[in-house]
């Protein structure tokens, strides 16, 4: 067997170009993986929000594979400028057909620029509440307290009102309570403050109670206390239970709507 002829066949003409393109493709894939690994490590060392890492990695991967593709076309002897022009036309056509997707991508960049929330923040967006897990190319993902995953289109997130409960690290609990007109007001307010004075409640500002309004059958009070954001629900449920227990201990009637009828003989 004449190996020289075989080598000449493999390295000449179309076969040579195909082998060259295959080699470029393999090397390109290897380089992309190395670069993506470095990009991921770099992102982990930066202060950029972890929720945005997925979006940046997806964008970087897309650009790198696009460059690999152009290199493969060049190895095959195809004019790269022509491919770029064709790709531009195709991109325009796809863009018109995928306007919503592009709007979501632009919305993602808007969120990265304005950063109205951070990874791990508890937020309320478009009527949905949950902890921010990820911002990718098209969606913002939230995890709810009952372990559901919610994916909101970035375009919806940008246009919606965003309530960030974790922005300042603290939240105020407000609990409305009603009590009988027969109960001394100061006694009721002291009982509410006592109920709100728990280990996880902040002392500055301290728990506070006041009369909020006068109802037909009861006086309405409000209890306010501040807690760390992560303690909100634990304290909320604990204080609600303590209010009823302390009212029972001090014989404070927690009234409900009723009507007194007096009959004159």
Helix-strand layout with pairing:
Blueprint: H1 3-10, H2 13-45, H3 53-75, H4 80-97, H5 99-114, E1 122-125, E2 128-135, E3 139-143, E4 149-153, H6 154-159, E5 162-164, E6 170-179, H7 185-196, E7 208-214, E8 219-228, H8 232-249
Antiparallel strand pairs: 1-2, 1-5, 2-3, 3-4, 6-8, 7-8
Q: If you had to describe this structure to a student in words, what would you say it looks like?
A:
- This protein is of the alpha+beta class and 265 residues long.
- The chain is 51% helix and 20% strand.
- It has helices at 3-10, 13-45, 53-75, 80-97, 99-114, 154-159, 185-196, 232-249; strands at 122-125, 128-135, 139-143, 149-153, 162-164, 170-179, 208-214, 219-228.
- It has a five-stranded antiparallel beta sheet with strand order 4-3-2-1-5. A three-stranded antiparallel beta sheet has the order 6-8-7, with helices on one face.
- A hairpin with a 4-residue loop joins β7 (208-214) and β8 (219-228).
- α2 packs antiparallel against α3 (53-75) and α7 (185-196) crosses α8 (232-249).
- The longest helix has 33 residues, at 13-45.
- The radius of gyration is 32 Å and the shape is elongated.
- The protein starts with a helix and ends in a 16-residue tail after the last helix.
- 17% of the residues are buried.
- The mean pLDDT is 80.
Shape: elongated
| DSSP strand content | 15-25%
Radius of gyration: 32 Å
Binned, the helix content reads 40-55%
Largest sheet features: 5 strands, antiparallel
Discrete helix count: 8
> What's the overall average pLDDT, rounded?
80
Major β-sheet strand ordering:
4-3-2-1-5
- Strand tally is 8
Overall structural class, as computed from helix and strand content, comes to alpha+beta
**Helix/strand order, N-terminal first:** HHHHHEEEEHEEHEEH
Low-pLDDT stretches are: none
Looking at how many chains there are and whether they match, the oligomeric state comes to single chain
The end-to-end span amounts to 129 Å
């Amino acid at each position: 067997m004449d190996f020289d002829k075989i080598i000449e066949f493999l390295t000449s003409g179309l076969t040579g170009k195909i082998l060259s393109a295959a080699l470029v493709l393999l090397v390109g894939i290897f380089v992309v993986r190395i670069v993506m690994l470095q990009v991921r490590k770099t992102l982990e060392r930066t202060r950029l929000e972890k929720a945005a890492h997925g979006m940046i990695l997806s964008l970087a991967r897309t650009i790198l594979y696009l460059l690999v593709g152009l290199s493969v076309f060049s190895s095959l002897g195809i004019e790269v400028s022509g491919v770029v022009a064709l790709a531009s036309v195709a991109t325009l056509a796809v863009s018109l057909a995928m306007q919503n997707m592009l709007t979501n991508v632009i919305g993602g960049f808007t969120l990265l620029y304005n950063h109205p929330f951070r990874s791990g923040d508890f937020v309320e967006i478009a009527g949905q509440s949950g902890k921010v897990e990820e911002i990718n190319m098209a969606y913002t993902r939230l995890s709810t307290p009952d372990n559901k995953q919610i994916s909101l289109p970035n375009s919806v997130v940008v246009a919606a009102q965003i309530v960030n409960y974790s922005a300042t690290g603290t939240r105020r609990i407000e609990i409305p309570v009603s009590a009988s007109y027969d109960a001394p007001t100061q006694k009721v307010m002291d009982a509410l403050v006592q109920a709100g004075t728990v280990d996880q409640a902040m002392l500055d500002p301290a728990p506070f109670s006041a009369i909020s309004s006068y109802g037909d059958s009861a006086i309405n009070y409000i209890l306010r206390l501040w807690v760390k954001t992560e303690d909100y629900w634990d304290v909320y449920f604990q204080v609600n239970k303590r209010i009823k227990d302390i009212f029972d201990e001090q014989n404070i009637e927690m009234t409900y709507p009723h009507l007194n009828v007096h009959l004159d003989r």
